[in-house]
Each structure stands twice: as structure tokens, then as C-alpha cells.
Design a protein that fits this description.
This protein is an alpha/beta fold. About 35% of the residues lie in helices and about 25% in strands. It is built from 15 helices and 19 strands. Strands 1, 2, 3, 5, 9, 12, 13, 16, 17, 18 and 19 form an eleven-stranded mixed beta sheet that branches. Helix 4 links the parallel strand 6 and strand 7. Helix 3 runs parallel beside helix 9 and helix 7 packs across helix 8. The radius of gyration is 28 Å and the shape is elongated. The N terminus and C terminus are likely disordered.
């Protein structure tokens, strides 16, 4: 509000006295960390290196992986860390055995009585991770074609095992339903989709190379066929009766009187990628360890046109840069009581695979990890943004985190928005195993903060170093530094209750 000129002249002395009084009584702001400029410069430098074209988009199994892991090891060694693999034969790099597959060709056909039906490519497609799979089902073959409608986990294993299951597609529900059915060991699952457009979309979704852990690979054959094709094979009336039966409350699986043959081939390669594991040894390692983690991988080429390379500056060169800078600062302020492990994971983009491999074969018992902090997609929010707390209410760390936020005058962002990312980040692979793992980042404070990045640069060639925002990332890094410093004190005990009600530690 603006005051008229005469009132402004009369008010000026009073405003001046008020300002002087406020200056005399208000507490002085806390001094800025003298290392802020250094942190900013180090983060910007490392992000630019990791997201440069020379690193090739950091895709596992490519020369970009070797450059990336070598760079991370070089930085950790320079900071004073040692290999944390606890395996002299695999210093720094812990192997992650992966399988990469790309679909090639498929064929679907039916026989009903004496009639044969070959499903054209535009109406049907099948996928497998194996080089070639051929399966058949029919009443005279020892296995059958079984219609399960929209049922999933309620289907008994004895009904599904060894059969080809035919399910009705349902957007949003089909992937989970298929996973539940595959757990019952059918030889294949056929999903009936609406039309040829749905087949084209499915083909496009599966077209890119997919990567999975070798230890998790299963022989799974997933096929998709249109409603129109099924109606031609079985007859309109018979197919419509099957569809209608699926809506009944007392629906039970039905054997389809037909023989089906499904064949699929793929291009396949098996290779070893690596997690990088560094260790800042503690003075009292028997007291447990603190784990810092982030994924080093990205997508390689993922775009079209003259510059298809996805450099992944925000996702996740920024997380690795923060991880390296935090490790450097913690090493400089040590020694600490507890061991501090630094984990840079592979193949997060393919389903948290490196984190899962770490959880399957950790260098220390998972039960000895008192806290794990994940760094992912951190260079988005400006300074002063609330903190996104992914994993809030799920670990004994809440009280420590919330107390420190209160001390620093920071608030927590939208909890529902943060929760939506719980299973999409590496910490989930550890949280499932009982490790107290959280992701604390202002980038995940709200949809308003992260949304513009997700809609413009996420998983696109435009995710370049020029688009990073380091204000919030630096605040978050300093918050983590204090959290780790407190947790690395062997006299700090993680509380039993997730609300921190039994917190018994002391603070330096």
C-alpha cells in the first residue's frame, strides 16, 4: 500500500525509529557457511563433467559406465575414502550381473477344430527376455487355454500353473494383475486389449532395450491380442459370452476349447555392470554404519534428431555430485565413530537394479546400517524451499530429521506428493529389507516445485547442466551433513518407534 505524500513525510521519522528499534532487538542472522561458494563451484563442476557428452548418457554396459565409475572412484579416493566392497578381488566396484533384451519378432496362431487362424502383426504381439520361446496349449497337449477374465491373485496356483492364461486388459490394473498371475507359473499370459491402436502402443512401449537383474530373470512370455481377433477365432457370440461372464460375482476360470501357439524372439546380451562402494572408516565400526547413496546411471540415447543423447544433469548427475561433495566434507571433518559408506548404484532407471543387487549381497550386514540417505534429482528447487521427506513415518529417523529442520527454521513439504515417489527411488530397495532409508530433498517438496522439470526435461535430451538450480540442493546437502555427523556419533541411538518416542542419543 502506498501512502499519500504528506502522510508519508509525517510517517517517515516514526518508521525510522521503528526500524532502529527492530535492528537493536532482532537477533542477528546466523553467519553463512564460508564454504557455500566452494560447495556451489564443486557441484556445478561435477555435474558438468558427469552430464557431458564424453560420458555418453551414463548407460550401464557402455563406455560411459567406465568413465562414470572411474570418475566417482577418483573423487572418493581424493577425499580420503577407501574401497567399501570388502572384497579385495573387486575393489571399489561391486559387480551387478545384468541381462539386456530387445524384442525382435513374434507370432500368434489359434486352431479351433479344423480351422486355423494366424493373427496378423497389427492385431497381436508377444515378448520374452529369452532369445527364443515357443509354447503351445490345447486340451490334447497336456496344458490348456484358460480364460481368467479380470482375476489376478485370487486365481489358485493349481489352476494357472503350466497353462496359457487369457486375461482382459484394463488400463492401470493390467500390469499388477499380470505380475500376480505370472507368480502362479503359467507358461504364458495373453492380455486381450481393445484394438489395433492398443497393440501399436504396447509394441512401442516394449520396443526399447530392457535390462533386468540376472538373478531375477524368469522365463516369462507375455502376449497381447485384440478383442476383434478373439471374436474372429471363437465367434462373436462365444467371445461376448466370455467377456460377460467375467463381470459375474461368482466368475470362475473357464477352459477355452482351442489350441494356441505363441512364439517370440529377442536380441539378448548378458553383461556385468558395477555399483561403486566407498568407505570412510569409523573409529568404532562395531557401532554400525551410515549409508549415503545415489544412482550414477542414466539412459544413454533417448531422443530423436541430431542430439538424441540424454545427459541426465539433474537425474542424476546432481545427486552423485552432492554425494561426492558430502563425502569430501565428512572426510575433512572426521574422524567419526561409525563407518560411513558411499554407494553409487547402477541401473536405477531399469527398476532400482543396482540397489537391489546391493541389498542381495551387501558388504556389511544390512542390520548394521543405522540410516541410509538417498540422493536423486536434487538440483531443482531454489533456496528456501520446504523439504520433501520421502519415507516419512516409515523409519525411526523422523524425530532426528524433524528436530533438525525445526532448529534450522525449515518446514516439510507436501507429504502425499513425497510419498508418491517412495517406490520409485533406490531407498525403497533397502527399506523393503528393513533398512531405515529416506530421501530428503527440496526437489520433492511439492508438485509445484518438481512438476515443471518432470514435464519439460525429465528423461529428455534437454536435461543439461544449464538447467540446474543449486540453491535448495546446497541447503539439503548441509542438512545431510549435520544429520550424518550426529548419526555417526556412536552415542547416538536410533529410536525404536518411528515417531522417535524412544530417542535416547546425545548430540555433540
Amino acid at each position: 500500500m502506498r501512502l499519500p505524500g504528506r502522510l508519508l513525510r509525517l510517517a517517515a521519522p516514526l518508521l525510522g525509529f521503528a526500524a532502529l528499534a527492530a535492528c537493536a532487538t532482532a537477533p542477528a542472522p546466523p553467519p553463512a557457511d564460508p564454504g557455500i561458494a566452494e560447495i556451489r563451484a564443486n557441484l556445478a563442476r561435477d555435474i558438468a563433467i558427469l552430464a557431458s557428452d564424453e560420458f555418453g548418457g551414463r548407460k550401464p554396459g557402455t563406455p560411459g559406465e567406465e568413465r562414470t565409475t572411474a570418475f566417482i572412484i577418483e573423487r572418493l579416493e581424493a577425499a580420503g575414502l577407501v574401497s567399501g566392497t570388502n572384497d579385495p578381488g573387486s575393489a571399489w566396484r561391486a559387480p551387478v550381473e545384468l541381462v539386456a533384451t530387445t524384442p525382435q519378432a513374434s507370432g500368434l496362431s489359434f486352431e479351433v477344430g479344423s480351422r486355423g487362424f494366424l493373427i496378423p502383426d497389427e492385431e497381436g504381439v508377444a515378448f520374452t527376455s529369452r532369445r527364443r520361446v515357443l509354447v503351445q496349449a490345447g486340451s490334447d497337449l497336456g496344458s490348456e487355454l484358460v480364460f481368467v477374465g479380470r482375476k489376478g491373485e485370487s486365481i489358485p496356483a493349481e489352476t494357472a500353473a503350466g497353462q496359457i492364461l487369457v486375461m482382459l486388459g484394463e488400463p492401470g490394473a493390467s500390469p499388477e494383475r499380470r505380475a500376480a498371475l505370472f507368480a502362479r507359473n503359467p507358461v504364458a499370459i495373453v492380455t486381450v486389449v481393445e484394438d489395433e491402436a492398443a497393440i501399436a502402443a504396447t509394441r512401442a512401449a516394449f520396443a526399447r532395450e530392457s535390462i533386468l537383474l540376472a538373478s531375477e530373470e524368469q522365463v516369462r512370455l507375455a502376449a497381447f491380442v485384440t478383442r476383434g481377433a478373439m471374436a474372429r477365432v471363437l465367434g462373436d457370440e462365444a467371445w461376448q459370452a466370455l467377456e460377460a461372464s467375467a463381470a459375474a460375482e461368482d466368475f470362475a476360470p473357464v477352459t477355452i476349447p482351442a489350441r494356441m501357439t505363441i512364439e517370440a524372439t529377442s536380441r539378448r546380451r548378458e553383461f556385468t555392470s558395477s555399483n561403486v562402494i566407498g568407505l570412510l572408516p569409523g573409529a568404532r565400526p562395531e557401532a554400525g554404519a551410515v549409508l549415503l547413496m545415489g544412482h550414477w546411471d542414466h539412459l544413454g540415447e533417448c531422443g530423436e534428431g541430431p542430439d538424441p543423447l540424454c545427459n541426465g544433469a539433474v537425474d542424476n548427475a546432481s545427486g552423485i555430485a552432492s554425494l561426492l561433495e558430502l563425502a569430501r566434507r565428512l572426510a575433512a571433518s572426521g574422524p567419526h565413530d561409525r563407518d560411513i559408506y558411499v554407494l553409487a548404484t547402477s541401473a536405477e532407471e531399469q527398476g532400482l537394479l543396482g540397489a537391489k543387487a546391493f541389498a542381495e549381497s551387501p558388504p556389511i550386514p544390512l542390520s548394521s546400517i543405522v540410516a541410509a540417505f538417498n540422493f536423486d534429482t536434487v538440483a531443482v528447487a531454489p533456496a528456501g524451499t520446504p523439504l520433501g521427506f520421502v519415507g516419512q513415518g516409515r523409519t525411526p529417523l523422523d524425530r532426528l530429521v524433524l528436530d533438525l529442520l525445526a532448529e534450522r527454521g525449515r518446514t516439510v513439504g507436501d507429504p502425499d506428493f513425497a510419498e508418491s515417489f517412495l517406490r520409485r527411488q533406490d531407498g525403497w530397495a533397502l527399506l523393503e529389507k528393513g533398512v531405515p532409508a529416506v530421501l530428503l530433498s527440496s526437489a520433492f517438496a511439492s508438485r509445484e516445485v518438481l512438476g515443471p522439470y518432470l514435464s519439460s526435461d525429465y528423461h529428455r535430451p534437454s536435461d543439461e547442466p544449464g538447467g540446474i538450480e543449486l540453491g535448495g540442493a546446497i541447503e539439503d546437502l548441509l542438512l545431510h551433513e549435520e544429520l550424518v555427523r550426529r548419526l555417526a556419533d556412536a552415542d547416538t541411538h536410533v529410536p525404536v518407534g518411528t515417531d522417535g518416542s524412544e530417542w535416547a542419543g546425545r548430540r555433540r
